[in-house]
């Protein structure tokens, strides 16, 4: 259970030496607010002054600070807020920024404060100790991950399930964009339906979208975890990049996040105005499943036996499920059964007319 917890604030008028001693010694227990424009900056100050931010019970000891450029470089491995803001070129998304070195869950922060912060606000953490995945699974969050959640407001509930595909596509294209700008080698990150990112057959990222319906609108909190610079226990973007390149090159979390919001803002505009069909061709070019053969196991009610039916994935249906065809050219919509951790080992088929 989460509760609204009174917050402790730093007094910016304390002597500089005492202020920075306190800042250094309590870095892990900070929540830093920042804005791209004067509007977001003033909002950050207002939220701090009015003690408005709601925190999960696990983060009860976190204190609020409004960011200033003098706080750069406090920790070498901390998220560089200024680098991110200087790289950000969006009109709406990612401009109101919340950061903490350590949080229970960025998803909980944006969800609890949805009505207090602008649509498109983002929360970033270096470490999470209670990150969430699908079906209440925990997402492991070691240092070196890009861990963030942001807010989206939608009116048409029929397309809310498709938002995760837009997010996946935006992240894949953002990674390519940063590599292109930096002159780095191509990293072939792919989408595993419905909400995972894979590199060389290994999962390097996951997306989680949760929503609530309020005042005739859907408040969607989008959470993302991406292995940028943490090769254990599996692999990460920079590990693969180092294997592909002779020069010393590294992707930065801050630049990936800024590139992501640029891509997402563009894709989301297309998605809302033209539908996902306008993005589907691009999406299918970077997912793992075009032409994939899937064996569906179906229970025979007459003799309790299990029948196996082979189908080939063709794309996505209008509702966002997998579109497949069998050897008799009959089309099917494939649904996860909700029990299997691997979607492709627990699919059910629905015949399409």
Beta percentage is 25-35%
Count of alpha/pi helices:
8
User: Structural class of the secondary elements?
Assistant: alpha+beta
| Estimated helix fraction | 25-40%
Which CATH C-level class of the largest domain is it? Alpha Beta
Major beta-sheet overview = 10 strands, mixed
Q: What is the fold named in CATH at topology level of the largest domain?
A: BirA Bifunctional Protein, domain 2
- How far apart the termini lie comes to 45 Å
Ranges with pLDDT <50 over ≥5 residues?
A: 1-26
What's the overall average pLDDT, rounded?
86
GO molecular function, one term: biotin--[biotin carboxyl-carrier protein] ligase activity
Family: Belongs to the biotin--protein ligase family.
Organism: Coptis chinensis
Domain BPL/LPL catalytic: 82-272
Q: What does the secondary structure layout of this molecule look like, with pairings?
A:
Blueprint: E1 8-9, H1 16-25, E2 30-35, H2 38-49, E3 63-66, H3 81-87, E4 96-103, H4 106-112, E5 122-128, E6 145-154, H5 163-182, E7 189-192, E8 196-199, E9 202-214, E10 217-227, H6 237-244, H7 253-274, H8 277-285, E11 293-299, E12 306-316, E13 322-326, E14 331-336, E15 347-351
Parallel strand pairs: 1-3, 2-3, 4-5
Antiparallel strand pairs: 2-4, 5-6, 6-10, 7-8, 8-9, 9-10, 11-12, 12-13, 13-14, 14-15
Helix pairs in contact: 3-7, 5-7
């Amino acid at each position: 259970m989460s509760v609204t917890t009174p917050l402790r604030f730093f007094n910016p008028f304390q002597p500089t030496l005492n202020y920075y001693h306190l800042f250094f010694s309590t870095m892990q227990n900070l929540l830093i607010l920042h804005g791209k424009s004067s509007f977001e900056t003033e909002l950050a100050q207002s939220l701090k002054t009015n003690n408005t931010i709601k925190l999960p019970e696990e983060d009860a000891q976190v204190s609020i600070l409004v960011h200033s450029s003098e706080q750069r470089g406090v920790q070498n491995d901390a998220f560089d807020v200024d680098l991110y803001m200087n790289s950000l070129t969006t009109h709406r998304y990612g401009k109101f920024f919340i950061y903490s070195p350590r949080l229970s869950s960025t998803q909980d922060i944006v969800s609890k404060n949805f009505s207090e912060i602008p649509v498109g606000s983002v929360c970033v953490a270096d470490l999470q100790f209670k990150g969430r995945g699908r079906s209440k699974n925990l997402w492991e969050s070691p240092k070196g991950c890009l861990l963030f959640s942001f807010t989206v407001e939608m009116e048409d509930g029929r397309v809310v399930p498709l938002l995760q595909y837009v997010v996946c596509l935006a992240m894949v294209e953002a990674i390519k964009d940063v590599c292109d700008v930096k002159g780095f080698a191509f990293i072939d990150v792919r989408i595993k339906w419905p909400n995972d990112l894979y590199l060389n057959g290994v999962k390097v990222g996951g997306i989680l979208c949760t929503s609530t319906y309020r005042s005739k609108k859907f408040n969607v909190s989008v959470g993302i975890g991406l292995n940028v610079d943490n090769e254990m226990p599996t692999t990460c973007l920079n590990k693969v990049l180092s294997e592909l390149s002779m020069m010393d090159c590294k992707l930065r979390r801050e630049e990936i996040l800024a590139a992501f919001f640029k891509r997402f803002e563009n894709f989301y505009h297309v998605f809302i105005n033209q539908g996902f069909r306008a993005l589907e061709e691009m999406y299918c070019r970077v997912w793992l499943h075009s032409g994939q053969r899937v064996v569906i196991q179906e229970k025979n009610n007459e003799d309790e036996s299990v029948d196996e039916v082979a189908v080939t994935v063709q794309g996505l249906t209008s509702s966002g499920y997998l579109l497949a065809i069998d050897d008799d050219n009959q089309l099917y919509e494939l649904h996860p059964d909700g029990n299997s951790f691997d979607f492709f080992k627990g699919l059910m088929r629905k015949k399409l007319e």
